[in-house]
Amino acid sequence: MELTDLLPLEKWTQIENEIHEHSGLESNVFNTDGIRITDNKVWVNRLCPAIKATDKGQSFICAVAHMNLANQAKDEKRPVIEECDAGLMKIVVPIFVDGNYIGAVGACGLLPAGGEVDSFLVNKMTDIDEANIEALCEDLAVIEKNSAEEVAQFIWEKIEAIVAEA
Question: Is the distance from CB of 24 to CB of 110 less than 8 angstroms?
């Protein structure tokens, strides 16, 4: 089963937008290969588009974080909340139908309370100047741990309801 067997792309886009409106996080639905299934893009900060604009940033920060957390969520069969290597909050919720993993919902882009962006690592991975990275981080919104847990639960319940109707 594919994600589009569960819902059409337009409905997945609606879900991504609902998650964003609920949480302030960027949200995307991914297939089992870690590829976004919609072209929906809502940037929630200025740093992420700069990172993703570089091949190394996309490959070695964003994709690695998603695949690691998606694999963990798949193995543990539950939502996972961690930081990406840049230091931003990432939530991944697995999607299972009849015990089969068919993809995941990811939500990311806010700074964990008490956390900080790893400007040195971002610079080494992307060649973006550290001063520019610092400037891009000046207005980063913060998310508390309990809020991230609530968002993960919100996404989990939304996915469970969709799967139950399938």
Answer: yes
Whole-angstrom distance, CA of residue 113 vs CA of residue 141: 9
Q: What b/e string do you get for 106-138 counting C-beta neighbours within 10 Å, with b at 16 or more?
A: bbbbbbbeeeebbbeebeebbebeeeebeebbe
Q: What share of the chain is helix, strand, coil (3-state, %, to 5)?
A: 50, 20, 30
Contact between 166 and 160 under an 8 Å Cβ cutoff? The reply is: no
Helix (H, G, I), strand (E, B) or coil at 74: helix
pLDDT at 6: 95
Please tell me whether the overall predicted TM-score, pTM, comes out greater than 0.90 for this model.
yes
The set of residues, in sequence order, having a beta carbon less than 8 Å from that of 1 and lying 6+ positions away, is: 97, 98, 100, 102
Query: Which segments of 31-147 are extended strands (E)?
Result: 80-83, 89-97, 100-108, 111-112, 142-143
In the chain, the N- to C-terminal Cα span, in Å, equals 11
Q: Is the pLDDT of residue 166 over 90?
A: no
Kindly report the length of the chain: 166
Q: Are 83 and 100 in contact (CB under 8 A)?
A: no
